Amino acid sequence: MPNALTLHRPDTYITNVLPQEYDTLALLKMADPPVGENRILSLVVHNDKLYGGTGNNGFLAEWNGTDAWVKKASNIENQWKILSLAVYNGKIYGGTSDGGRLFEWNGVNAWVQKAPRLNVQNEIRSLAVYNSKLYGGTSGAGRLFEWNDVDSWVQKAPMYGSESGINCLIVYNSNLYAGTWNAGNLLQWNDTDAWIRKAPQLNGQQMIYCMAIHNDQLFGGTGQGGRLFRWNDTDAWEQVAAQKDGQVEITGLLSFNDKLYGCTAQHARVFEWNEEDAWDLSALQFESLTWLLCLSEFNATIYAGAYDGAYLLRCVRCF
């Protein structure tokens, strides 16, 4: 017989009828959407606070630690999406769309533009700190930009082949890597002026949506098939988890307490990798959400940002 699971949250009780194996699989709402927003596109932790970058209006939102987002910076320069967030030299930076800008938070109540658009790149989809510099990965032509620490981007790598987007950047074994779309490549920057391919497309996956380091290995979550790939540290991806429950994209990856978690698009699930060859379910869909877009560890707990709703959600079973 199914089990009835009742969980308390600040504003209501939510009861789901779940199969036995899904007992305690819940995403708990920790914050409603900021006024006027419906997407949390990025998350970052800074000075013991959790922040979210939004889309429709390009806000920076701070979680109050209990039940609400608090707006800390409004839209400037008609940048409607904060696609990426990073902490660099003790400050929060945001990569934007639709204009490929770099914003710096003033620490109080506003964004300050620190780099305008360069080379017609409309989106800074990813940010990473590498060798004491801040880098941005673009969409439009898959460039790598380096911030000059003052007022502009400097291009450090052009598009590789037909890879039009740098979805994610990560530092691994003292090198800077990028996950791409149109063909789901893994690229390594040569530290000078070009990308070098380190893994070609595998199993028809068009996009490496996100990456994470887990147990000293590099993993990628894919788009158009919801797979989990592991890099062989030489020249190829290997698939270590197939698509589960019809989830078409792994939109975020996070290594936490010796486990690897992924959030999904289609029914907004959270999966846990079984350390061998498959995803296990760790959290069911919250209400009717279709996308979770980012994961973050904060105060020994995993939080997820929702794409269609701008909720902040907590994964109950992720520990």
Strand content: over 45%
Q: Look at the structure and give the mean pLDDT.
A: 92
Q: Can you summarize the main beta sheet?
A: 4 strands, antiparallel
What do we call the CATH topology?
Methylamine Dehydrogenase, Chain H
Can you describe what's shown?
This protein has 319 residues and is mostly beta strands. The protein has a single domain (27-315), classed as Methylamine Dehydrogenase, Chain H. Helices cover 0% and strands 56% of the residues. The protein has no helices and 30 strands. The chain has strands at 3-9, 12-18, 27-31, 39-46, 49-55, 60-63, 69-73, 81-88, 91-97, 102-105, 111-115, 123-130, 133-139, 144-147, 153-157, 165-172, 175-181, 186-189, 195-199, 207-214, 217-223, 228-231, 237-241, 249-256, 259-265, 270-273, 279-283, 292-298, 301-306, 312-315. It has a 4-stranded antiparallel sheet, with no helix packed on it. A hairpin with a 2-residue loop joins strand 1 (3-9) and strand 2 (12-18).
In short:
By secondary structure, this protein is mainly β.
Topology:
Elements: E1 3-9, E2 12-18, E3 27-31, E4 39-46, E5 49-55, E6 60-63, E7 69-73, E8 81-88, E9 91-97, E10 102-105, E11 111-115, E12 123-130, E13 133-139, E14 144-147, E15 153-157, E16 165-172, E17 175-181, E18 186-189, E19 195-199, E20 207-214, E21 217-223, E22 228-231, E23 237-241, E24 249-256, E25 259-265, E26 270-273, E27 279-283, E28 292-298, E29 301-306, E30 312-315
Antiparallel strand pairs: 1-2, 3-30, 4-5, 5-6, 6-7, 8-9, 9-10, 10-11, 12-13, 13-14, 14-15, 16-17, 17-18, 18-19, 20-21, 21-22, 22-23, 24-25, 25-26, 26-27, 28-29, 29-30
